Amino acid sequence: MDRVRKSVTLPVGGASAAPPSPPCDSPLPPTYPRVAVIGGGNLGVTSAAYAAAKGADVSLYIRDSVTGKAKLAALAAAGNVLPLVPPDAEKRDVKLTLVTPDMAAAVAGRHLVFVTTPANAHAAVATAMAPALEPRMIIILHPGQTFGAFSFVKALRDAGADPEVLATVSIGELGTSIFTTRSSVTNAQYTALKDFMFFSCFPATNTAEVFELLSKMFPATRLKVLEDALAMSFHPIAAGPHTEITLSHLSDMARGQDYQYYVEGVDKLNVHLITKFDEDRCNIAKAWGYDPVNVETCLRKMYASDYTAAGLDPATLSLQDLFNKNSAYKGFGAPKDLSTRYFTEEMPCGVLPLLELAAKVGYTAHHIEAVEAQVSSLYADGPFAQDFRETARSLTKLGLGELSRDELQQYAKTGRLPECHPRS
User: Fold this and answer.
1) With a threshold of 0.85, does the pTM exceed it?
2) Which one of 40, 87, 359, 424 is separated from 417 by 20 to 30 angstroms, measured CA to CA?
3) 309-318 pLDDT tens trace
4) How far apart are CA 149 and CA 201, in angstroms?
């Protein structure tokens, strides 16, 4: 993945300073690249509207599914005009340049592409995108989950992407969704734009250029630059909370009982379980030589301004309070059945890949193993039956299983496999 890049100096500590002005009111420079957003869910619609509000030329790809058709029709009827509702700000109408179910049309001539679909749909997105890949394209997985960049590059390659073009592409990753969103068919609303976010780039040698573009798009968010895409594999923090909260409320799911997922669904018991899961995640990262940030610290940093606006001191809040007293989480309902992405995305793209990383360095993640066993048993049979091990991301499936730790870290940094590797 070699190419010549202009030199950009990263801020000290790898984090961008957050200016006081509202992010939508700080327009992008006229030279900012054209943007494509892939995904018509809450995050995709909000991301597209936000970028357009900042002055970007934006296309939005929405899959031609049953729900996708409804959104495509609604936006077409509105002339591709979409109301954006930021937190504590007036609604504003923004116009998207293009809304389409055609992937090639969506990404044509667009240098910066945000992929906002669930992580377990990334392979399908990459397969559709591969024939339309363009030189020097920057693809942002928003977010990527464990092995996100490695998985996306493998899917592009398997789908027949031009090797010479692929060698010029950068894959950036965000640790989780930068927005906390509320969207409908014709409305984009976010209740928070996170104050802090992990960021990595594959190959890591291209980090500076991608960082510069994201800093201009999200000036109010401090981007913490991780060493490489492998480091990012340990930093998606949602797998623990999502699996533990949902497991704790299976009886509510069975009864059809609704509750506010984070505000009411997090109690002392599942806070303990979330902490145990997170301890395993952090210990796996340390065994690989990385310095992870625990979930409690992440929440304090990501939502610091929201807590402060509510008259709360983030430093004094317990982990339970960080969930229960987060105004951005109000109104998030509970999953209705086992189709929830809190299992179907987190298991193959978070839980099982973490267990593989643990095994590779000889660490036994007892708590995460127990979670994996519980969730897998729920899907052993019935209408939602599936084997997550068959669909899970893994180093072996990615053709990286034989690499040593040092070789894998070198691949993350340079994008080049060892000379002895069959694909090098």
Assistant:
1) yes
2) 359
3) 999 999 999 9
4) 8
